[in-house]
């Protein structure tokens, strides 16, 4: 596939020789006994045999539609049986899903379409006040597939029925790109992460191993399935691989998840820190029985050490901290780690083949135990973003290490503590976006002359978003509500809306003439 940077041959040979990379394909991952329950979502319950049949039919149907190995399609589906069927059918056929979040809006979807030359858009029937059909009509794709009532488009059920004897999909190769994941971003335009069959199968297999997933695992997918954490760390795919059961729900809210935990005897779930806090508070007064829970994984943003102690106590289960990224590298605290490591660190690398460097701003390694930027390379960490040569020249070292933009400290045990970041990204309770992206939108507002977006500390979200605006001469600064309306009109996902607006006369500058964002944030303290 064009725009994909493969691993250098000597690395590929090593990962194969060491047994990290095999020949397994992502679409063949479900490994449960035919009669066992694979998937529960809403009113749908599918055994492994039923799931496989639906996936097979959908894969044949996609081929009958004319979609082929290497084509890209945008998938924007909530956690549902439809997501699982569509995702597995696509990857089985070598058609590459570009995983958009349910929260994305027209602006983001259009950009993803343009970047990937997508041939299809997979969407759900309704999405609150979002006129997804209007968007779908305007996209330059050949096929719009709806999980539900199709109207002028094609339903998923039609796709599953469209297969013919001669529409058997071509099988992908293990080294092919299987899926394009969305990066949290550090620039004004979206960046996509190519994950190959062999690296992503390794990712989910090794994660499932570390987390002890097995046939008895009942995994609750409450974070968006499009997110690497819920999809493959070990997530939905790890649970299916080990023959467990996946319960899909489109929200982390205790009101919806707690009854499901009780009914399905859920054993494990993955949460971002704000959701984990919400669960811990709600558990104290719930009438639902949560005793089946054995493990809660928390990651995506920093979990404060005091919360790391209270969350597992409140939920009556073990905690695992996960410091991961869609780009690859995953760190987990291990089940047998002592409490001070589980509570006070973000875990250690998943793979013995993960290479870690902690460096100073000049790129030189810092002394052991000191804070520096984390660089990494390994069998499931990308070598380049999709179709982004200029960005790649900055995001990787000449010898192929990915500059994570995270500031970490490494303990003698190998565990990492996340201390901050160098990248200009907002991490609002685990939902990430580039400051530059929001600034770009704000600059398009007629009353805004300059904009700087900064994360401010927040006790629950970790960070909330403040937009500093320099109004144009003679115009009053727009109010927060007006800015939100403006962004909504531009088709921006709501999680990128600022929480606060501050009008200023000008921005302080750093020594090298860049906007001094620390200085701006300090003004509010
Ligand atoms: C996960 O993936 P992304 O791609 O949404 O975000 C990655 C970034 C990291 O570079 C780091 O800045 C931050 O999110 N992050 C954490 C963290 N986990 C992620 N910061 C502090 N503490 C943590 N535990 O967020 C992700 C992917 C797979 C598994 C888990 C999380």
Q: What do these coordinates show?
A:
The protein has 525 residues and is α/β, with parallel strands linked by helices. The chain is built from 17 helices and 25 strands. The longest helix has 18 residues, at 48-65. The model has no long low-confidence stretch (mean pLDDT 97). The structure holds 5'-O-[(R)-(benzoyloxy)(hydroxy)phosphoryl]adenosine. It is an enzyme of class 6 (ligase). It holds the Pfam family AMP-binding. Residues 33-386 form the AMP-dependent synthetase/ligase domain.
What would the keywords be for this entry?
single chain, 525 residues, alpha/beta, Rossmann fold, GMP Synthetase, Chain A, domain 3, binds 5'-O-[(R)-(benzoyloxy)(hydroxy)phosphoryl]adenosine
How do you describe this structure in short?
InterPro entries: AMP-bd_C (IPR025110), AMP-bd_C_sf (IPR045851), AMP-binding_CS (IPR020845), AMP-dep_synth/lig_dom (IPR000873), ANL_N_sf (IPR042099), ATP-dep_AMP-bd_enzyme (IPR050237). The protein is about 30% helix and about 25% strand.
Structure classification: alpha/beta
What profile does the largest beta sheet have?
9 strands, mixed
How many distinct beta strands?
Answer: 25
Catalogue the ligands: 5'-O-[(R)-(benzoyloxy)(hydroxy)phosphoryl]adenosine
Discrete helix count: 17
């Amino acid at each position: 596939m064009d725009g994909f940077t493969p691993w250098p041959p000597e690395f590929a040979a090593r990962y194969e020789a060491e047994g990290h990379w095999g020949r397994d394909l992502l679409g063949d991952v479900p490994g449960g006994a035919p009669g066992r329950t694979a998937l529960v979502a809403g009113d749908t319950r599918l055994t492994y045999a039923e799931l496989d049949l639906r996936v097979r039919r959908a894969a044949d149907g996609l081929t009958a539609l004319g979609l082929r190995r290497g084509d890209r399609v945008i998938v924007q589906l909530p956690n549902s049986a439809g997501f699982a069927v569509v995702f597995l059918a696509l990857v089985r056929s070598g058609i590459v899903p570009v995983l958009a979040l349910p929260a994305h809006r027209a602006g983001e979807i259009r950009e993803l379409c343009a970047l990937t030359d997508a041939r299809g858009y997979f969407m759900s029937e309704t999405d609150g006040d979002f006129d997804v059909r209007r968007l779908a009509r305007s996209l330059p794709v050949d096929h719009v597939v709806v999980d539900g009532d199709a109207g002028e488009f094609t339903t998923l059920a039609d796709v599953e029925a469209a297969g013919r004897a001669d529409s058997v999909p071509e099988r992908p190769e293990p080294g092919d790109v299987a899926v394009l994941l969305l990066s949290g971003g550090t620039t004004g335009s979206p960046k996509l992460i190519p994950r190959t069959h062999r690296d992503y199968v390794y990712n989910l297999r090794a994660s499932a191993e570390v987390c002890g997933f097995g046939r008895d695992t009942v995994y609750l997918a409450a974070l968006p399935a499009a997110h690497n954490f819920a999809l493959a760390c070990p997530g939905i795919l790890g649970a299916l691989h080990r023959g467990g059961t996946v319960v899909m729900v489109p929200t982390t809210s205790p009101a919806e998840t707690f009854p499901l935990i009780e009914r399905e005897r859920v054993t494990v779930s993955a949460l971002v820190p704000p959701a984990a806090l919400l669960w811990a508070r709600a558990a104290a007064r719930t009438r639902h029985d949560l005793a089946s829970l054995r493990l809660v994984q928390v990651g995506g943003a920093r979990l404060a050490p005091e919360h790391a102690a209270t969350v597992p106590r409140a939920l009556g289960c073990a905690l695992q901290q996960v410091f991961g990224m869609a780009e690859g590298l995953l760190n987990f605290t291990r089940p047998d780690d002592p409490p001070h490591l589980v509570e006070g660190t973000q875990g250690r690398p998943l793979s013995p083949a993960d290479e870690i460097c902690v460096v100073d701003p000049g790129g030189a390694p810092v002394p052991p135990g000191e804070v520096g930027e984390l660089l990494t390379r390994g069998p499931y960490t990308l070598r380049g973003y999709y179709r982004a040569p200029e960005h790649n020249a900055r995001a990787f070292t000449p010898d192929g290490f990915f500059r994570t933009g995270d500031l970490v400290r490494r303990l003698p045990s190998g565990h990492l503590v996340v201390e901050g970041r160098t990248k200009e990204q907002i991490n609002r309770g685990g939902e990430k976006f580039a400051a530059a992206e929001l600034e770009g939108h704000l600059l398009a507002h007629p009353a805004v002359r300059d904009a700087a977006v900064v994360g401010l500390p927040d006790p629950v979200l970790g960070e909330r978003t403040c937009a500093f605006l320099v109004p144009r001469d003679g115009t009053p600064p727009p109010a927060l509500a007006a800015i939100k309306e403006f962004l909504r009109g531009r088709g921006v996902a709501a999680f990128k809306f600022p929480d606060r607006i501050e009008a200023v006369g000008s921005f302080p500058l750093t020594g090298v003439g860049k906007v001094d964002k620390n200085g701006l944030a300090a003004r509010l303290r």
